[in-house]
Amino acid sequence: xxxxxxxxxxxxxxxxxxxxxxxxxxxxxxxxxxxxxxxxxxxxxxxxxxxxxxxxxxxxxxxxxxxxxxxxxxxxxxxxxxxxxxxxxxxxxxxxxxxxxxxxxxxxxxxxxxxxxxxxxxxxxxxxxxxxxxxxxxxxxxxxxxxxxxxxxxxxxxxxxxxxxxxxxxxxxxxxxxxxxxxxxxxxxxxxxxxxxxxxxxxxxxxxxxxxxxxxxxxxxxxxxxxxxxxxxxxxxxxxxxxxxxxxxxxxxxxxxxxxxxxxxxxxxxxxxxxxxxxxxxxxxxxxxxxxxxxxxxxxxxxxxxxxxxxxxxxxxxxxxxxxxxxxxxxxxxxxxxxxxxxxxxxxxxxxxxxxxxxxxxxxxxxxxxxxxxxxxxxxxxxxxxxxxxxxxxxxxxxxxxxxxxxxxxxxxxxxxxxxxxxxxx
Length: 426
Hints:
single chain; 7-stranded mixed sheet
């Protein structure tokens, strides 16, 4: 009997312990609330749930052809054919594909760059432009912990998330002028002058997201000069090289101006847009250093930061980029295809503006064609955007940003009419 009682006590104790563990486990995550929806991804979700046959999605930040379909470039398909079955799937080094990095640097800094020849650039393969920005933000925090970053208003929303999660304090500088729907150059220059000497600034190299507003070449020269006076550090996010104008050299002009003026720069490159490698997460982070010894040290630290994040970058996209940029035939084909994508976007800008103006709008729509790249900052208010969605089943972010990649010859008239209807009472 004593043995039976003992077993009962032990059994009850075990069940109590199990119950306690169960209750404790259940409470571990009870305080977690659902995260706020990403404003861009939320637009796509709402679009997909809409049963209307007339629905239009101009919120997605990915290229589409004139039928609204995703595109895989011919040069990418050919590169994949060369890769298939020919290579193993071993890990890349922590810093990524050396060949991809070499080709990426030539694209950003110039084929004949003395900086590359002198080995003054610390560079690693990154998880597209987002990963490159995050690596740099963590590097900035680790080695200049008291620094902060100046970010343009507006900017790609994820920029704020990246530097926030790297615990780098953020400041902002003027960029977009809502009334002119162009660059607020005077206010921007004032902010650059008034920032403490040696401040970090985030700059969009071309096709500013979300506004599509870029400084002119002369304005870039003035910006570079003022950076020199203030000893600021320019960090360029270059997500659209080639995709903006159709000419990669032209789209890198801002970076080249800063290099000519002797700046130490950082650069995040992405091949998502200009090669259509969205899901391959192919990018590069580079930091210009004073000499080769410094570059070796900086690269080693970037690799150490990457190690606990993801250890090694993915191989497939890196191989695609390497093959395309290192092969003269495939590179020529890429240049032709990226120019075709850029020209389609430019054509849709012209068509959208023309269609709205032909409807008799009393507003100016010059900004549609003055802006460049994938996005048009329409100037529509959040309330007008809501009307576009509710009355016309047209989806975009509430800041009025139109993805021109979603505009086609088949829907441009419908889109123009809807924009005219919601804005004509203004």
